[in-house]
Design brief:
Length: about 260
Amino acid sequence: MSLDLRRTGEQGIAMDTPGWRHIDFRVHRLPVGATLDGHTAGCETALLLLGGHAVVEAAGRDWGLLGSRADPWAGGPPDGLLLPPGSPYRIRTTDAVELAVCAAPAETGVAARRLSPDTARFERRGSGSTERRIHHILPEEAPAERLLLVEVFTPAGNWSSYPPHKHDRDDPPHERELAETYYHRVRPGQGFALQRVYTAEGDIDATHAVRDGDLILVPRGYHVVAAAPGYDDYYLNVMAGPVREWRFTPDPDHAWLMNWGRTP
């Protein structure tokens, strides 16, 4: 397969990249006092302040100062906006900002709104060496046309997105086609995680040593993450496809390990 599944978050991915579709994603690291102008064009777009604070004007409105944490490790969910197609935006930072711009093609989207930390849903998933903490930023039950957004905190030595699962074909109610990106942050920053993406047919079988700031693409196939001992792994997931439903199929060889109980 010609598509390189690994790149940096700042390099990002465009939906017109050969072998890829459904998602545009890029991370901007902005210093204090910086200004970033953008436009959603034909996409539903989420602006997520993964760290830092900024004054945001978007969709003809001044949203004031947004931001809820210094960095992804600093506590609760991120702050941000969900914008429909055709919306200009301007970001003016008041301190150093890590901004994720997540987009998917849409017809009309929904009315612009804040993705407040207070509206995110918390979940503790798995147990023992598969336990991880999840913030559902833009879950299926929340209004949107295309995007699904979630961030996951995996403790050092634990496995995540486990057991391996996929969502690459339209087979309701069992599975829906959703492309997915994983934007990783690793703590301490010299550490690494491992991520595997593979298909049953074997035409994709890639395992990457993921460094802090790396982006992994999942165009199709099963996928799974492991945090190296001594290093916590954070990742932001963006999912989008023709139908906005998260329906997945575990790898049949490992489905017996499914323990995704939802715990408040």
